[in-house]
Every structure is written in C-alpha cells, then in structure tokens.
Amino acid sequence: MGREQLLLDFIPEGFELIEVCESAILSIEEINDRSGEYDEELINNLFRAVHTLKGSSGLLKLESLVKISHEAETLMDILRKEKLLPSEDVCQVLINTCDQLRRLLQKVDETKSNPELDEESEAIIEVLKREIKRLNSETTDAPTEPKPTKKKSFEIFGEETSEVSPDVPLKKKSFEIFGESETTSPIEDIKTPEPVETQTVLGKQTQDSLIQTKTPVDKEVTGPSSSVHKKEIKVANEKLDALMDLVGELVIAESNVTQHPLLKKLRNEDFNSSINRLRKIVLDLQEVALSTRMIPISGVFHKMSRLIRDLQKKANKKVALYISGEETEIDKSIVDLIADPIIHILRNSIDHGIENAEERSLANKPEVGSIQLSARQSVNEVWVMIRDDGRGLNREKIIKKSIERGILSGDTDQLSDREVYNLIFVPGLSTAESVTDISGRGVGMDIVRQNIERMGGKIEIHSHLGKGTSFILRIPLSLGIMEGTVVRIGNKFFTIQTTELREFISLRDRTEIPLEDNQKVIDVRGTFIPIFDINQILNHREEIFYDGLDPLMIVLEYEKKLIGLRVDEIIGNQNVVIKPLQGILEEANGVNGFTILGSGNVSLILDVKSIFQKMQRID
C-alpha cells in the first residue's frame, strides 16, 4: 500500500482521534465542575488518542502535526504520571490544540502534503511548552509523600514488611510469591486486586456522566469475553451510491418481470412460488443495501457538546446539554446535512432562549439552563427534537417586529400561534434587541428552514412563554428511496409521498361548489377543500385528459393546509427509487423527480410543497 493510500486512510482516522480528545476534555471539564476527582481511564484515553495521532502522523511524515501532538503528549504524560486532573486553563489549552490540529489536518486533506507551521501553530507549541514547564516545576517543588509501591502481577498475594532497609531490595523474587513477612500476617496485608477498584470507579463515572462517547480508542481487552470483536471495513461513498443505484434498477427489473402480462396469465403453482421468493429476496436485498448507508446520528450529536461549551462561555450563561436517542440511524448523506440546522437552533437557544442567571433566579428556575437534544425514528422519518427551558417565544413581540418590517398588516388576532412562530423563518426578521457574534441578524432560522426542506423534511415549533421552546425536525430516513402512493390520471402516472396524503375521497356523489375565478371547493365533513386538476398544477404543454369513469380526489396536506387533486385511479403504495430530473426538466415546478414503476411506466413524483405555494399565489 503506497503513501497516498495510507494518507487517505489516515485523514478520517485523524479527525476521529481529534474528536475523541475533544470529547475527553469536555468530560474532564464536567468532572472539574462536579467533584474534581482524578479519573485515570479518562486521562489514559486522552493520552492514547494523542499518542496514536502523533505516531500515525510521524509514519506519514506530517511533521507539523507531529510537533504539536508531541508537546500535547508530553503534557498529558505529566498529568498521567502525577495523577493530576487538568485545570480549567489547561483544558482550554488542550481544546485550542485540538482546534489547531483539526485545521492542519484539513490542510492535509486538501493538499495531501505536510502543511507548514503557521503563527497559530507556533503559538500553540509555545503555550504547551509553558504549561509543561509550569507542571514540571510544580511537581518538583511539591513535597514528596511516600507512595505505596504498586504491586506487580506476580506480587499480588505477597506481603510487605513494616520497615524496609535501604540494603534490602523492595522487589520480591518470583519464588517468594506466597512468602510471609516477619511482622505481618498474610490475611492482614492482602489487598484488594486493582481491577475491582477500577470497576467501581467506572460504574460511578457511567452513572454521573451526562454524555459519554464510546470510541474504538476507549476499548481494551480485559479478558476472554473481549476476544470477539465486531469487524468493520470502510467503503467509499461512491461505491455505496453505485450499489443503491443497481439495487434500484434490480427492483424495477424484478417488477417488470413479475408483473409482465404474459407471466400473469400463467397458472403454475411452482412458478408463482418462485416468483414470490424472488420478490422477497429482492426486497430483502433492497433493505440491506439501504442499511449500509445508515449510520447513528451520535456523531453529529456529540459534536454539539463542544458547541454548547463555547457558546455558554461567550454568552456568560450556564447551560447543560442532555443527549438521548443518539443510536438512531439515518442515511449518511442526511447526517452530513443535518448538523448545520441543529447548530443554528442551538445558537439561538443559548443567545435568545436561555435567560441569564439573574432572570432565571427571578423566574424560580435553576441557575443552570438545560437543552435537550434527542432523536427517534417514526415510520419513514427521523424526528430530531431540540428543547430548552428558556423564556420561550413572545407572540406579541414577533407580531410587532413583523409589522415594523412590513411582513404583516391588518388584523393579526386571527393568526394562530403556529403561523406567528413560523414568522421567525422569514429572512431578516429577528426579535433580538442587539446583534451579537452568536446570533441576532435574522438569517440563521431562514437557513434552517431551507436546509430542512431541501432534504424533503419539515420543521415544527412549539413554545410556551416563560417555559421554553421545542423545535422538531422531521427528516426522511433516506434521500434515495421513499414510500409513495401511485395514482393514474388518464394514461399518466404520478407518485406522492405517503406521509403527505390525508385521505382519498370519491367524487361520485359529491357536488363541487363553484367560486370566483373558476375555483371550486368540496365540502368534506364541514371543511371546504379547494380542488384542482393536474393541468392547473403542472401547466403541461399537452393537456392531460381524465377518463372520468370513477372520479376520485386525493387530499394533500402541508403545514396543516389542505388541497384536493382529481385522479382517475389509486394504483397503490410502494417503495420507489427516486431518480432526479435532468436537463430542461430539472427546474420543473411541482415535480421533484421520477421513478420507474413495475409495469415499466414512468411516474412523476409530485413536489407537494411547491404545489401548495403555487396554489396560494393563484388564490
């Protein structure tokens, strides 16, 4: 394997090691805030991660990374040997070191060569050296206390004499392993084996820690039970994409074969059994192929711990982040996109939502604000929920700002809370009294909504004044496959995402009520739903004709609003492979892709969001 391939393998591993270091430092800061007790395993994990990064960088001749990581390793070695927990200042130095190592590694990723040491890197090295010198002087000047000699494995049942002569070596020989001293009895001096104490410490740490990141670096072989390891390999995204495309084509080809008119006429039991088995295998293969792209969302969630740490210091507030559901899996392509919206929401929660210490005291709230970041799977979606216990959204303040900006006019009393809260997504609208370097310019939430909708997701807001705000991000599990309902209009086929369908209604015995501008509505259990045909929605050059044999209406739902679409037939629900539109169709309004049905027909995938926006403009 050449250096270039080794470098390509090292870069993602290097970023992971830096994240391990960062996570360990954040955990150390939490211990400093609580008890300040030395945590040997945490310090060892941090030391091993830095040591591994230094060794791998040296192997690839990345001298800049080696110089910084060497000083960090030296600092960690002192802390480890002296059993010292890093102070707040040392933790900040180590955090800055992680940031600089990450920047250098990004340059390595871009240039595939060793980056030059810049002024920031030199400054980091000098600070690390200064901290090393200070710790060395402190440990040298500190009064030395006699420490109990650590027993080696072959001395675990040995005894120590009460008085040790300088002429007598402390170390017992192997044949004295069961020997007795002259002044102590065997039973009195036998000490508890060290592993038992380690287990007790680990149990306490697990119980107390709010967030604990498990990484390959944290794992050690402790006995026979650890001999079985989960084997994993790294696969390039391009290969996974190609696999998904081929499986999608296989699903279409299987449907073409099994639904072929000639085969449907066959009445052979063995043949039908084989067809059913083929269909099951293809569906299982599709599920497995999809699962290869699914990764836990924990990688994104635990990065937010560092963000919260930095933001609360900038805002001079105390905030605790509680994470749950991080094992929830989501498509890798979506994981890469979901981080940015979460960051913007957390920034707003700390800057605008969480009150300062004085306000929280007056409101009888705990001094430390809380933010809950959680995820769970719901049918074909993943729900990411961000809740804070801050001041909540002020309805009147949002309306006032919207009127000042010319966004709202007239009577606003009829607006629901949901409609008012959604105004915070309007570009440039901010209720902040002043602009800070955290937020306040009125652009962050607009970006959040755009990114979520680009993924085919939705965002909901729930808020109680004085109690807090919750954001729910509803994200599809995958961008490549969706569960859709296929309908026929004339000789054309269309697919709608199943979660955007409210219901099907027969128009056979219903009367369409005419309104102005040729608009019609249908009375459905006291609710008047506007009804359209496909030609009004898509503006085809060639009109699509309905056969009108058994008229039906499908009710589409978007943000609690409803519209009806006339169709001729409901074909059914199925998982479809989404294929992007290309060429002149790429910007087609009302459509965001197409799929190939089992019959070989092309079905356009309707974009419900753009359909609603277009119909609102018509209204």
Question: Would you mind describing this structure in some detail?
Answer:
There is one protein chain. By secondary structure, the chain is of the alpha+beta class. Helices cover 44% and strands 18% of the residues. The protein has 18 helices and 18 strands. A 6-stranded mixed sheet has the order 10-14-15-13-12-11. The chain has a 5-stranded mixed sheet with strand order 2-4-5-7-6, covered by helices on one side. Strands 16-8-9-18-17 form a 5-stranded mixed sheet. A hairpin with a 5-residue loop joins β17 (591-596) and β18 (602-606). α4 (88-111) packs antiparallel against α5 (119-141) and α12 packs antiparallel against α16.
Please name the defining characteristics of this protein.
six-stranded mixed β-sheet; alpha+beta; 18 strands; five-stranded mixed β-sheet; single chain; 18% strand
Quick structural gist:
This protein has 18 helices and 18 strands. The protein has 619 residues and is an alpha+beta fold.
Distance between the termini: 65 Å
Q: Report the sheet-strand fraction.
A: 15-25%
Side by side, the strands of the main sheet go 10-14-15-13-12-11
Q: Helicity level, as a percent range?
A: 40-55%
Give the SSE map:
Elements: H1 3-34, H2 40-59, H3 63-82, H4 88-111, H5 119-141, H6 186-189, H7 194-208, H8 237-258, H9 261-264, H10 269-291, E1 294-296, H11 298-315, E2 319-324, E3 329-331, H12 332-353, H13 357-362, E4 369-378, E5 381-388, H14 395-404, H15 417-421, H16 444-454, E6 458-464, E7 468-476, E8 481-489, E9 492-497, E10 501-506, E11 513-514, E12 520-524, E13 527-532, H17 534-538, E14 552-558, E15 561-567, E16 569-577, E17 591-596, E18 602-606, H18 608-618
Parallel strand pairs: 2-4, 9-18, 13-15
Antiparallel strand pairs: 1-3, 4-5, 5-7, 6-7, 8-9, 8-16, 10-14, 11-12, 12-13, 14-15, 17-18
Helix pairs in contact: 1-2, 1-4, 1-11, 2-3, 3-4, 3-5, 4-5, 8-10, 11-12, 12-16
